[in-house]
Amino acid sequence: MSAIYEALEKGILISDGAMGTMLQGKGLTDGGAPELWNVDNPNAIEEVLEEYAAAGANLITTNTFGGTRGRLQMHGLEDRLFELNKAGAEIARKVADRHPGCFVMGDVGPSGELMEPMGTMTIDDAKALFADQIKALVAGGVDAILIETMSDLQEVEAAVSAAKEVAPELPVIVTFSFDTNMRTMMGVKPEVAVKTLAAQGVRIIGANCGRGVDEMRIIAKELTGARPEGVFIITQSNAGLPKLVGGDFVYDGTPEEMAKYAQDMKDLGVNVIGSCCGSSPAQDRKSTRLNSSHSQQSRMPSS
């Protein structure tokens, strides 16, 4: 059994938070490809992940959200797919190895394409697209595959199938973004997401992004209420909502508010508690303190 599952059997795990907004604070310009920094500015990526790990995160995420071929093609980087994804995984691996019990999630975001019949992408096309990225993440040494911010069950099916084929020994984690009347953009409800993915053998399922902690509390109730035996629930809420301050968007969630969210997730029976857009290591540190009796029990060497 994966060391991640063993750790989850012992207690709550804390995952990290935002990467994009953290990198913008370090100089990443709007419209730039964050994945390029894995080779052009690796120290910045390492610094962000180190801050999260030092704050107590048990799970840190590779800087590869837009690492599929189609998304990289928008920046003329499609020919560097393997290089950029592998480099992102290696940076996270380096950080995790300095922190016993810290695991690396290889980040796979949505393809950006619509699946048939609404679009032109087939299940086989999507599976091949995700497999290319996952192969590079595995080569870089990840402990799990994180398929995140998803809305279409068909696309998730393709990504999960690719992960199982490329890396059958690694846990698969799937999170959906429920941001339209507690459904995904494609109409998927939390209960349906949990039951469908559990039937496909996914054991860590949940929600990320969304419209802030208040809605995440409602979503978490539905996720935990639908959870079959043997399935773990993960939530990663945005730090409030973005507000335009001057020329910048600033998320209004404070570390204290995110700490309250973490406590509420714990009370609802969520197994992995993290954050998403607009969050910071300071918020992870607050969450770790609230859940210290659980998270410290679950710190184990990564496999």
Blueprint (SSEs and pairs):
Blueprint: H1 3-10, E1 13-14, H2 20-24, H3 37-40, H4 42-54, E2 59-61, H5 69-73, H6 81-96, E3 103-108, H7 123-139, E4 144-150, H8 153-166, E5 172-176, H9 190-199, E6 204-209, H10 213-225, E7 232-237, E8 242-245, E9 248-251, H11 255-268, E10 272-275, H12 281-290, H13 292-295
Helix pairs in contact: 4-6, 4-12, 6-7, 7-8, 9-10, 10-11, 11-12
Explained architecture:
This protein is α/β, with parallel strands linked by helices and 303 residues long. Helices cover 44% and strands 16% of the residues. It has 13 helices and ten strands. An eight-stranded parallel beta sheet has the order 1-10-7-6-5-4-3-2. Helix 4 runs parallel beside helix 6, helix 7 packs across helix 8 and helix 10 packs parallel to helix 11. The longest helix has 17 residues. It is globular. The C terminus is likely disordered.
